[in-house]
Amino acid sequence: MAEMTYRPMVADDIAHVPLDCHGGVETIRSRIEDIGAAAILALEDGRHVGQLQFRRHDPGLRSASGLWSPDYWGDFGEVQPDLPAGALGIFCYHVGQLRSGQERDSSYQGRGIGAGLLDTLIGWARASGFAAVVAKCVPPHRPVMAFMGGQPASVYAARGFELVAAWEDPQLHEALLERGLVGTEDDPRSVAQVGMCVRRF
Questions:
Q1: Cross-strand partners of 133
Q2: Is residue 109 within 8 Å of residue 146, measured between CB atoms?
Q3: Average of per-residue pLDDT values in the chain
Q4: Which of 3, 88, 90, 156 has the maximal Cβ count within 10 Å?
Q5: Is this structure's pTM higher than 0.90?
């Protein structure tokens, strides 16, 4: 049986793993130099099969393209509480990503890889001296989770996160309807509600 391992992404990984959603190479190098890593990698027998990206949390970050920019994951508008300066923000989950691009191998979904990435990140963040981890949770609807690449509030709550705010995202709802991932009969409050989860150390 294949062995799944998880570890931080460091500068030596830049030429060997997909870089979608990270930004340019110099941005990645700068992030790694600043905080020690740019993602947690999931490797199956040494092959990249997923990653969880993160950055320093910036309470002023706003996504100019809403849902269609990686900045979306760090954009909490005015709903966020005061947080310590040393907070880390979770960005994109890329479970089943075997190469660069939007394609995902669905055989890796539902195997606990996202949870493994998250658990590794929490341990790494605590050991690295961060004061908190911030995440945007997604609706607990498998097609929505697969489309967005995120985790529902229950997964974060089981790991000591507090849901500090929740709201319906109209842009997400529109995108889900366009892709046929939800129906017009589905309640937007359940299929398009996102929220802010915070774990303090």
A1: 88, 199
A2: yes
A3: 93
A4: 90
A5: yes
